[in-house]
Every structure is written in structure tokens, then in C-alpha cells.
Amino acid sequence: MNDPAIYDWYRLMRDEHPVHRDPLTGWWVVYRYADARHVLTNPGTFSSEMHRMGFPESGLESLPQMDPPRHTRVRQILSTAFTPGSIAAYEPQIIRVTNEIVDELAGREHVDLVAELAYTVPIAVILEILGLPAEDRVLFYDWARKVMSVTPEEMAQEGYLEALGELQQEAISYLRAKVRERKGGTGDDMLTRLANAELDGERLTEDETVNFANVMFAGGHISTTMTIANSVDLLDLHPDAREAVRADRTLIPSAVEEVLRHRPPITTGLRASTREVEIAGVTVPENQHVAASFCSANRDERQFPDPEAFDVQRQSEGRHFGFGFGTHHCIGNALGRLETRLVLNVLFDRFQQITVDRDGDIAWAVPPQMVGFERLPVHLKPA
After folding, report:
1. d(C-alpha 101, C-alpha 117), whole Å
2. Cα–chain-centroid distance for residue 382?
3. Closest by CA position to 380, among listed 338, 346, 340, 337
4. Is 346 strand, coil or helix?
5. Which of 15, 76, 139, 222 is such that its CA lies 20 to 30 A from the CA of 123?
6. What phi, psi does 298 have (nearest 5°)?
7. Which has the closest alpha carbon to 200: 72, 63, 82, 329?
8. Cα separation of 216 and 206, whole Å?
9. Residues 372, 322: contact at Cβ < 8 Å?
10. Structural contact between residues 266 and 324, judged by C-beta atoms closer than 8 angstroms
11. Would you say 268 and 288 are in contact if contact means Cβ atoms under 8 Å apart?
12. Residue 318's CB: how many other CB atoms inside 10 A?
């Protein structure tokens, strides 16, 4: 994803092969915005229940792999813990945590932005929001790094899925114990609210609560990590945009949306066809993987004028696929957006310059369905 030529290829595919079966994966990849949106908003034809296609299961029913009406019910209950007011209330915590972590960088002029900020801030914030001990940050950080740093060669090795399953079970066992502690509690942390959330007298099961806490940690913090680092990198690559945002902080929200459009942290929305269906004149058989390409759809000139330009004044929230779209639009998207906006504000406050070391040890994230950095060395000049 660090090769600009990929976007020329996406344009070619949108124009000439808008639906194409990938010869390596066998997935039917959908490249145009309108077609991708159709796939993501029609769960009856394009199911999220990927276990039917042989995907490994964690032993818990996962919200991202549910279809309506089951998904609708669970999401409605979860939404009671994700009201706009409850998300906005985390702003002081996020600012405090970010400043504490930036304090640890005092006096240093060269740091890895990912390891020392973009990873640590979201993990620390998630722990605070869930009401988990700060000293467990290292434990969660270790779990996240093991998942994020796996190479394609390691993924192909015998026993990889079993090892990944064991790692997932460590996190799930930890969270299950914490959920049981919070059942019937009156605390104001997210885990207590989830453990006791109800809608019309119906509550989440223990498995549903544990699963969502796990998804919130794994999916929520990784997407935010990618978005923070991508924001710093893209603003560094576009100095006029960076200086405009630094001078006018009211541009930060639209700048974050442009980062999510220009370089979405998750590349693909994967579904399973429940029947034979035609997409852009191509017949896709029943029980096939159908992949909506977020990276291509977000640069579709049929939807976004001058899509290759990085325009921090572009108004695209609610239209791009930065946090998915439709039924499975990330339920934690408001939190991820808030964290990224606040982190950028703190960085602008604390540093006069943040410059990516283009000659340094930059490494892109390995997992193929993510776009971001494993390492992003930067030079810091305090304000």
C-alpha cells in the first residue's frame, strides 16, 4: 500500500474491470463506490456471517460477523453505551492521557511515532474507558504487537491459526473475568455499562459483552493507531495542508475525514454472497467471498471530485468508507475520530515541528487488510 502505482491500478480496475475475481484469494473484488456501497448495505444478499465460508471462529458470536435481525438487536443494546454524550465525556481523559505520554518524550528529538504514541495512546484510552487497570497496558500492548507484527511467512506456517487462537483466548479469558466482576455493578466505566446494558428489558449475554469488549480493544485501537500515524504522515507529505491545519484548528475534523478517505485504515469490507447476484454486469455465484475495496471506492471520481488530491477542506464525512459503511459501520467510529482529533491538537500544541524521517526505519504494517505503519520515525521540535 506504500506504492502510489496501486492507485493508478485501482483507477484502471474501476474503469475496465469494476468487479474482478482475484486469482490469489478467489475473492470477487468490487472497486467502484456505488457497487461497494450496494454490497455493504444489503445484508440479505451479502452476508457478514463469514464462518459459513470457513473463516475461523473465536468461540464467541462476533458483532462484525452477525446479520440482521440478530445484529440489529445487539447493536441497539450496545448503542446505549455509545451515546454522543458518553463519547464526548471522554475528551478530558483523552487529552490527559495524550499529554502524559507526550511528557515521556520530553527532551527527545527522534522517536518512533507508532510505538511511542500512536499505539500507546489508544491502548491507554481504551483501558481507561473500559475501566481496566493502567498497569495492564503492557499486557494489552504485547497482545496487539503480536497480532500486528505477524508476517505473511508466519501466517503460512503450520500451527499459526492455533497460536493466534491461543493468543485470542488469553485476551478473552482476561476480559471474561473482568466482565463477571462488573455484573450488577454501578460504576461509570464502559465495561460496567456494557455488562449491565439493556434495551426493553433485554441485556447482552456474558459472551456478547466479552466479545464486544474484545472487538472494541482489537478493532477500535488498531484503527485509531493507523489513523493517528497516517494523519501525521499525510500532513508531513502535504506541508501546505499541515500549515493550514496548524493555523486553523477548526480544520482538524475535516482533515481527519480526508485522512480516512485518502488512506482508510482497513482496506476491505468482506461479505459472503447468499445467492447468485449480478454486480456491474458481472455474475457472482452463491457462497462466494465478495470484497468491497475501501481504498478504491474512496478514490472513485464518480463520487469524489479530484479524488487523488489531499484536501483538508473536503467535506466527506458520512460518505467515505474510512470506518466501513452501512449495517457494520464501526460502532466505535465516534471515539476513534475524537481520539485522532484530540491527539493532533495536542501534538500541534506541544511541538513546533513534527517531521517524518524519510531516511529512517519506516515500516508499513504487515497485515494485508490494514493500511498504516509498523514503524514511523519522526523528528520532534518542541514548541
Report:
1. 7
2. 29
3. 346
4. helix
5. 76
6. -70, -10
7. 72
8. 15
9. no
10. yes
11. no
12. 8
pTM of the model as a whole: 0.87
Query: How far is the C-alpha of 334 from the C-alpha of 270, rounded, in Å?
Result: 22
Cα(288)–Cα(273) distance, integer angstroms: 5
Sign, CA dihedral 95-100-102-103, equals: positive
Is the dihedral angle over the CA atoms 116, 120, 122, 125 positive or is it negative? Answer: negative
pLDDT digits (tens, 9 = 90+) for 234-292: 999 999 999 999 999 999 999 999 999 999 998 999 999 999 999 999 999 999 999 99
> Residue 36 has which C-alpha cell?
461497494
Whether the CB-CB separation of 235 and 378 falls below 8 Å is answered with no
Q: Is 224 within 8 Å of 339 (Cβ atoms)?
A: yes
pLDDT tens per residue across span 339-350: 999 999 999 999
Dihedral of CA atoms 323, 325, 331, 335 in degrees, nearest 10, equals 30
- For residues 363 and 198, what is the distance between their CA atoms, to the nearest angstrom? 43
Pairing of strands 110-112, 46-47: unpaired
- pLDDT bin (cut points 50, 70, 90) of residue 228 is very high
